[in-house]
Amino acid sequence: MTKIPIWRRYARMFGPDAKADVREELRFHLDAKTEELMAQGWRREAARDEAERQFGDLRAVEKIGAAIGGRMEQRKRLADHWTDAMEDLRYTLRTLGRDPGFTVISIVILALAIGANVAVFSVVNTLLLRPLPFPNADRLVWITPPKSGCGLSCSTYTADAFEDLRAGVRAYDDLTGYMAFSTPNNERLTGHGEPVPATGIEVISNFFSVLGVTPQMGRVFRPDEMKGPHAETVLTDAYWRRQFNADPAIVGKAIELNGTPMTVIGVLPASFDFGAIFAPGERVDLFTICDLDAERNWGDIVTLIGRMKPGVTLAQTADDTARVAPTLYFNKKYADTLGRFKGEMVPQDLKGYVTGKLRRSLIALWSAVGAILLIAGVNLSNLLLARAASRTKEFALRGALGASRGRIVRQLLLESLVLSSGGALLGLGLALGLIVWLRSQGAIALPLLNSLRIDGQALGWTVLIAFITAMLFGLLPGVRMASGNLQEALKDSSAGSGQSRKHERVRAVLVVTEIALACMLLVSAALLLRSFMKVLDVDLGFEASRAASIAVDYDGDAPTAEAYVAKMSPVYQQVLGRVGAIPGVEVAGISDYLPLGPNRSWGTPLPEGKQKSYAPGEVPSPLVYVVTPGFMRAMGIRMEGRDFTWADRVGSQDVVMINRSEARLFWPGESGVGKTLVDGDGRLLVIGVVDDVHEESTEAGTGAQIYYSALQRRASSMQLVVRTQMKPSALAGSVLQTLRDINPKQPAAEFKPVQGIVDRANSPRRFFLLLVGVFAGLGLLLAALGIYGVISYSVTQKTQEIGVKMALGASTGRVQMEVLRQTLWLAVAGVVIGSVASVLATRLIASMLFGTSAQDPMAYLGMAVAIAIVALVSGYLPARRASRMDPMVALRGN
Known about the structure:
Elements: H1 6-11, H2 18-39, H3 44-55, H4 58-97, H5 100-129, E1 140-144, H6 159-168, E2 172-176, E3 187-190, E4 196-198, E5 200-203, H7 207-211, E6 217-218, E7 232-235, H8 237-244, E8 254-257, E9 260-267, H9 274-278, E10 286-289, E11 304-308, H10 314-324, E12 346-349, H11 350-355, H12 359-390, H13 392-400, H14 405-439, H15 456-483, H16 486-491, H17 498-536, E13 547-551, H18 561-580, E14 585-591, E15 606-607, E16 623-627, H19 631-635, E17 639-641, E18 655-659, H20 660-666, E19 676-679, E20 682-690, E21 705-709, E22 719-724, H21 728-742, E23 752-753, H22 754-797, H23 799-807, H24 812-841, H25 857-883, H26 887-893
Helix pairs in contact: 2-3, 2-4, 4-14, 5-12, 5-14, 5-15, 12-15, 12-17, 12-22, 14-15, 17-22, 17-24, 17-25, 18-21, 22-25, 23-26, 24-25
């Protein structure tokens, strides 16, 4: 038997067939042992059997050896693949570096699309996917009645109802809430120079413990502090830094709020932003305890928030709440208020309450950026296909030298992946900039904007869409190149070859797809724009353009409502007299609440003589405003009848004004002026009927409204409204100084245009319109690049054909028209397909439209015109280049 040398056996390692190698090695050792035994006198058969016995289970040894060899072979293959991949990567970087124009354009296109997708994903993730920034936030619920038209008073509850519900329910760990009728700049920080306005919220003392908010310094209110006055306050992180320079020793210090010493007991973490969750667009500075005993007789003032017990479902919570609701009193002093809240306590997921109404809008926005990514991907595929077509001979040569078709496809996919990775990195930077900008837009009334960030999920989304884009849109050029006859390409020298024409047709299909997607975005943007214009055209019931407002502070403490009115009546007259005398001021008035802001209702006055004509609950409670003389004119509210006068004071006939909706409800076909309403034992003379004012949003309808005289009823706050022909900024100093002359404690509140209130109400719609409009413009730009690329490539491929035509006498105009005709055919095909797709796509945004049909012909006409203009401009440049071609140069060059 031939012996295998020792050095060969140990230097060989394992070859490509590990099993065969192991079997050969075992056979060598068996043969060697057999010969050794035969030399000792054994017969061959017996020696073979003894050798096998001494070696043991040969099959097991063979399996172990094969497994070891397989692992080594796998490592070798991986090493080979890694070496090949590194070679391909170096080659890719070299080839892309030799074509910087193509590389930069591709990366920028992808960066815009990926950046937009990452930014919108971060918005969707924050508002819809990520839980609220509280521990076990899925157990938090918001308790509210079905939506009605009487404002916050029909969405809140009394102190008695809160306490009894808290004591009676079993499905909750605890219940809490806050006083819903706070207004901006309702607090005055004094004691350190000039009074400074601040916005404070009164919360039930267990508010932070129920939400699970832990202070960064000090402590929060304790649940046992729910009753009685407590001179304590908790600061927000932003206010602590802004007003107190992040004083590390602030806890335990006393500050003056509205002249009352308050001890700072804690500072909340930066992650907690009350306004971002419960009052989007508003800035909250500090918190105090809501004294339930002091506010027990104020009616519905408290919101309800609950934390469900672990394992309890929302349906079980609803059943438990419905069980207790009929046993609740509006006020325990009045027996007939038992069951007042029956059917009016509906728990819902807190996250759904905060962001649920934005779900369809965000899904539509996400779909829009998805279309942008598709357009960018198609553009990338188009660019790669054109580049691959120009490299046909390169790939044919590589194939002739031994490169497989799979290796060529892998090379093109790697180029796509490198471009997509570069686009992802640049896009991530663009997304970060967009998110920083969005976080700074405090005037946009969208929840949780301040918590926008690029987190691990956003980074994962970036990697995912970059990889999918590279694989999906880089595959087509690779497959097209691999499916061609590479050997024929080495022989083919014609620029107008059949292979090139196949590429041209594929690229034309891709461009039509781009145009169709751009059409969908343009139609959506046009519909949203027309809706926004309709919203701006809504008659709000007041004229905001020349009015401005400022919060007025005055110490009106009094033991009774009558004493308060008596104390404040001369103050109102003095303030309005002094402010009205400022040059540039046309008229001034005061109200406790302004339209499109906080609101409330109390009672339901009924027409005299018709009180028994209405069933309980049949007449909606009107929204209530307490105003001074001059307010209607200052707000630009049109009126029938007369305004309040300074003679309409306590002791005279109680007078009111109502809106037209309430007048039509009570006296259809008649004027309400001079009619009488009955409120309990009191009679109210209607002296004026005013236009319906939009009280909650510019898009929702209006309900019943009633205006009381501030000289007869107690106002909750003082909002001074001034009508002027000047810019508010020009009057701000004079108005503030006048208020301080009357009350030195008047804080430096902002004198802001009433139009700002309207703009804030419209800000969510403006936000979505802006983003969709930008995406539509980006889609149109990418489609234009696609059209230009295809037509330019076509002109290049037809150089000889164009040269022949021009040599035979074709005019410049004819050559240009042929090129433009091709361009318009692409545009028409894209518009037709895009129009059909838009009919389906606009269903997604139908709920976002206002006063506009999803099939509005003007939107489709505008889209077609925009595409036609872009197509003509994109096609004109290649057409002009083709018409200026020298026929002889074209023929020789080819």
